[in-house]
Amino acid sequence: MVTMGAETRGEDPKGSEPLKAPEPGPSPLSRLGGLARLCACRRRKSKEEEADAAQARYEQLLKIGSAVDQRKREDWYDRLAWWTDVKTKSGARVFVLAPRGPRGETEYGINMHELLAYALSKMHRVVAEEDTRFAVVWVQLSDHRVGPWQCFRFAESLHERYAANLEAIHVVHPSWTTRILRLVLWPLASEEFWDYFHSHERIEFLDVALDMRKFRLPKDIMEYDKWLDQQAAELHKQQAMKQGAMMSGSFGSMASGMDEERKKMDQQMEDMKRILEQKGYGSSGKQD
To answer: Which of 33, 24, 19 is nearest to 5 (CA)?
Structure first.
């Protein structure tokens, strides 16, 4: 059984009471999960009931992750969830989650419950047993694949040391749902939440937390990053051409309008000249 409580860190050499680790507060995702429960009008359980339920869910997730077929792990899942050798600038270990197809397909069906369970089976020793600080790089490839409620529920199922040791979650290539969620939460979530939850449109923006000279992602993810740059450049070019055409059309309309006005004035002058000649005035304006 996985023990969820805080453990003794050491004893005072003078023989005083053993020093215990401070109990970690709820993570930002757990707090949002509590808010979601209130919105759903669910009865709030006691702390003991919540702890027991979380421990049971966590142990079940570890069982699911450990039961993944060895060939499936080696041929696919190990390239979707892994520990890197690079640490953050503050010294935390880095775990990458990058759901995609076996050949890097961005549109490919994945059992996310199983994949997340497998990720936990790889993280458990480092985070829960060795009590190590860590950060997560979540490469979404414009598809989050996990709904907000599933995400909150998953966060509530974790061992308490995940919340205590989490430095930050860095989302790369965020989906539109992630963008909208951040926009909605902007006036609601605390500043602490934004210290934990970061979103980066491109891989290079991870440089705020990682040494990008050392941190590397698989080739297919790097190529997707370049493809997004090409799409953005093409969209910018199309917008520039559209604006140029609109401006050109505006100037053309103005020039055409000026030509029409000039023709009208010339016609009016000709009409006035003819009238004056009919009344006996010459071109000089004097009567003959």
So the answer is: 24
Give the DSSP H or E segment for 100.
Answer: none
Closest by Cα among 199, 152, 149 to 174: 199
Q: Radius of gyration (Cα) for the chain, nearest Å?
A: 33
Report residue 245 as tokens: 């055409």
The 10s digit of each residue's pLDDT in 96-138 is 999 999 999 999 999 999 999 999 999 999 999 999 999 999 9
* Domain covering 25-216 in this structure, CATH number: 3.40.525.10
* Ranges of each domain in the chain: 25-216, 218-283
CA distance 256 to 233: 34
Rounded CA-CA distance 187/121 in Å is 35
- Its pTM stands at 0.70
pLDDT of residue 181 exceeding 70, the answer is yes
Residues 6 or more apart in contact with residue 53 via CB below 8 angstroms: 45
- Here the tokens at position 224 are 């997707």
Give per-residue pLDDT as tens, 132-179.
999 999 999 999 898 888 888 899 999 999 999 999 999 999 999 999
Query: 95 — alpha (psi -120 to 50), left (phi > 0) or beta?
Result: beta
Task: Return phi, psi of residue 130, to 5°.
Answer: -85, -5
Which residues, in sequence order, are bridge partners of residue 287? 281
